[in-house]
Amino acid sequence: MAKVFCDFRFLLLVAAGVFIYIQMRLFATQSGYADRLAAAIEAENHCTSQMRSLIDQISLQQGRIVAFEEERKRLEQECGQMKSLVQDLERKDLQRLTDKMQVPVAAVVVITCNRADYLERTINSVLKYQRPISSRFPLFVSQDGSDPDVKSKALSYDQLSYMQHLDFEPVQTERPGEIIAYYKIASHYKWALDVLFYKHNFSRVIILEDDMDIAPDFFDYFEAAATLLDKDKSIMAVSSWNDNGQKQFVHDSYELYRSDFFPGLGWMLVRSIWDELKENHKGRQFIRPEVCRTYNFGEHGSSFGLFFKKYLEPIKLNDVKVNWRSMDLSYLLEDRYSMHFANTVKKATPVYGADMVLKAYNIDGDVRIKYKDQSDFENIARQFGIFEEWKDGVPRTAYKGVVVFRHQTSRRIFLVGPESLKLLQIEES
């Protein structure tokens, strides 16, 4: 019995050993599986991390690809723009080369300071007739000072060249109370003419101010008159203006006159005269039209609207198409004009005494009225309504002391000074 019990205990011990061995093996197996699982999870995590990194790299590369594509498109657009610009520059260079082969009649310069709205109207008026003949009349704008609106307006036009005059020197007037602006304007004019004549080498310059409209035949008129300037050195300048050019005082768009008075307001000068003169016109005369080729709309400016309502606003701007190329202007040359003008004055009917306006109105044909002195001239001029003003002893528009204007019809009125008949060699009636 004891032996059986002992065998049973032995079997139990063996079974327990086997059980423990199996448990240990099972534990070892489970540990191995756990390690493998952990390794698998770690590998999976690493793989996931690498995949995410790869995805991020792919996304980054895609972003770069998109950026490169956008940059490529931008560069293509810029290349297209540059190509267009190069073509445009080549075209303009070709145009400039072509233009240089044509000798300009005259440079046209618009003198301006601080009136951007006026400047715009003037430039548009000039370009309306200058564009088809720009090579013969290149356009410039010369600004005195640094007004930003004027500079911006001038630079907004690619059909013109811009110049800027900056003068900060204090102005010394000759007499107390004189308007400083006039000295500034004179300094600007001199600078602009020097630049155009000596730097750009133009032989003629047409000067306009920034408050002017021009007539349709403005450029034809000056081109025709250029021959006079070249031939006759007694002519200082050709002007497009008549101070007595109000509608009631003009009639003939073809009529031109010589004058001892400088009309200004749209005039042409040659370099040879500018070389010699600079400050003094040395007794030279001017050519002016009967009907103005410029219209001054500048009510507000350095002259503070002086005379505007009475004398400038009613000015008639020529609207008649004149074929200047067919015109013979040789009668305006100095050796012919004095006789030509004298014969015209000689034929006029003399009028004396009071009520000169009424008497003149009742006479058919031209009329001649003699004045004694400046005061008498001013009285007669006031009756007719023309300019009374004299400058440096010369009435506005006068030639050898004679002022001529139309009066409501085609008849001409000649106001003749005390020395005029002698200068014109006319015997007094």
TrEMBL record:
- Provide the topology term for how it sits in the membrane: Single-pass type II membrane protein
Q: Where in the cell is it found?
A: Golgi apparatus membrane
| Alphabetic keyword roster | Coiled coil, Glycosyltransferase, Golgi apparatus, Manganese, Membrane, Metal-binding, Signal-anchor, Transferase, Transmembrane, Transmembrane helix
UniProt cofactor note: The cofactor is mostly bound to the substrate.
Pathway(s) this gene product operates in, as recorded in its UniProt entry = Protein modification; protein glycosylation
Q: Which residues form a coiled coil?
A: 58-92
List, alphabetically, the GO terms of the cellular component aspect.
Answer: Golgi membrane
Instruction: Answer yes or no on keyword Nucleotidyltransferase.
Output: no
| Required cofactor names | Mn(2+)
Give the main EC class: transferase
Give the record's family classification: Belongs to the glycosyltransferase 13 family.
The name under which this protein is listed is Alpha-1,3-mannosyl-glycoprotein 2-beta-N-acetylglucosaminyltransferase
What species was this sequence derived from?
Phaseolus vulgaris
